[in-house]
Design goal:
Blueprint (H helix, E strand, L loop, with lengths): L3 E4 L10 E4 L7 E5 L4 H21 L3 E6 L2 E7 L5 H6 L10 H11 L2 H4 L2 E5 L5 H8 L3 E6 L4 H8 L7 E5 L8 E6 L2 E6 L22 H15 L5 E6 L2 E7 L4 H17 L3 H4 L9 H12 L4 H4 L17 H8 L5 E5 L7 H8 L2 E6 L6 H11 L2 E4 L8
Parallel strand pairs: 6-7, 7-8, 13-14, 14-15
Antiparallel strand pairs: 1-2, 3-8, 4-5, 4-6, 9-10, 11-12, 11-13
């Protein structure tokens, strides 16, 4: 370990010099391969905190896929269904591990956003996880360790320039944190909030039903939000984030953005999308992009004559609005977390359209009664946590 690490440049190439350093002691990381950038390290340190807390809250290996200092996906290491293996493009993989499952699910939630991600893993990276990472376009990975096989696989990625960072899992930062903006130093106590199953005990709706999975999913939502640029909303189902809306100035726009991502995740499991026949040799990113367009309103961009032949073996039928609505209605038992209170019931109305059955949010709006009333209309269980989770 060293006291400082010189970087190529800061957020942008014109921002030089650049480095990270410790006021006291040594850095808690060691770069095992490649060269870490300024934004890489912001993603790495935020992502590491997220997966460390997910592991503590659930007892399961955790992974997150970060882009621009917010998670594109986060998940714990539950087994993959056959449909999930298909939509995450891992049907051909023979060897899975709980940790590889966590990253497959974190990466798969929003593959468009995860392109070129920085990965954080809660556990020592094993061969199975390294082989999954090897096939994806990614900037780097941080973990508390790497098996020799995993390190060899990752060190060969990007012509030997893939960034591999080992972090000391015992490292704990000082309770007071600082940062500078425009030459002025900001100082605050770290957000050491412990999010566990009792975090959701204050249920304010007529429905009081929480399954054990719902508690896990809500914990995943709130821990994910803790490290997502605010305003932020997170939809979770079955141990993985399926839609994250980050950095929106309006709460409802955040809820809509995250909801549209959750809808796309579910639409990818529809017969219409599972049945798409792609031409041989199409790139993974091109395939993901084609699916995204096909499911959206600009579907003719991939179905136009002269275009579809370059993407599909057989021209797909239009995925109509009625068909999409019918399929989306089958998505149920989704959990949703918000980093601050819902000011209006319209957020609940939008969440309901994406199958949300459980909500956790701080509460404290002058219109809490309207928000609770809207939940009661749909039989949604909602907790007031009393804690805001802004992150900037």
């Amino acid at each position: 370990m060293a006291k400082e690490l010189e970087l190529k440049y800061g957020c942008n190439p014109n921002q030089k010099p650049s480095r990270i350093f410790m006021q006291e002691g040594e850095l808690p990381i060691k770069v095992l391969n490649g060269r870490a950038g300024y934004i890489n390290l912001l993603d790495a340190f935020n992502g590491w905190q997220l997966v460390r807390e997910l592991k503590k809250a659930t007892g399961l290996p955790a992974a997150t896929s970060f882009k621009h200092v917010s998670p594109a996906g986060a998940a714990v290491g539950l087994p993959l269904s056959d449909v999930e293996k298909k939509i995450y493009w891992v049907e051909d993989i023979e060897e899975f591990s709980p940790l590889s499952n966590a990253y497959i699910r974190a990466r798969g939630a929003d593959r468009m956003s995860s392109f070129g991600d920085f990965i954080s893993l809660s556990d020592v990276c094993d061969k199975a996880t390294a082989l999954v990472i090897k096939r994806e376009v990614s900037d780097g990975v941080i973990a508390p360790g790497f098996t020799p096989e995993a390190l060899e696989i990752l060190s060969a990625k990007k012509k030997g320039n893939y960034c591999v960072i080992e972090i000391d899992p015992t490292y704990e930062p000082a309770p007071i944190e600082q940062k500078q903006v425009f030459g002025v130093t900001f100082e605050q106590g770290r957000n050491e909030l412990n999010i566990d199953e009792h975090f959701f005990d204050n249920i304010v709706t007529e429905s009081k039903a929480y399954t054990e999975q719902a508690k896990i999913d809500l914990a995943i939502a709130m821990i994910t939000l803790k490290y997502t640029q605010s305003n932020s909303v997170c939809y979770v189902k079955g141990g993985q984030a399926i839609g994250i809306g980050a950095g929106q100035q309006s709460r409802i726009h955040c809820t809509r953005l995250a909801g549209s991502k959750a809808d796309n995740w579910w639409l990818r499991q529809s017969p219409q999308v599972l049945g798409l026949q792609f031409v041989d040799g199409i790139g993974r990113a091109d395939r993901d992009n084609a699916i995204d367009i096909y499911m959206g309103e600009e579907y003719m961009d991939v179905l136009a004559e002269g275009t579809w032949q370059k993407i599909f073996k057989v021209k797909p039928a239009v995925f109509t609005a009625e068909e999409k609505k019918a399929w989306l209605s089958k998505n149920t038992d989704v959990a949703l977390g918000s980093d601050a209170f819902f000011p209006f019931g319209d957020n609940v109305e939008r969440a309901h359209k994406s199958g949300v059955k459980y909500i956790a949010q701080p509460g404290g709006s002058v219109r809490d009664d309207n928000v609770i009333e809207t939940c009661n209309k749909y039989g949604i269980t909602m907790s007031f946590t009393g804690i805001r989770l802004f992150h900037h």
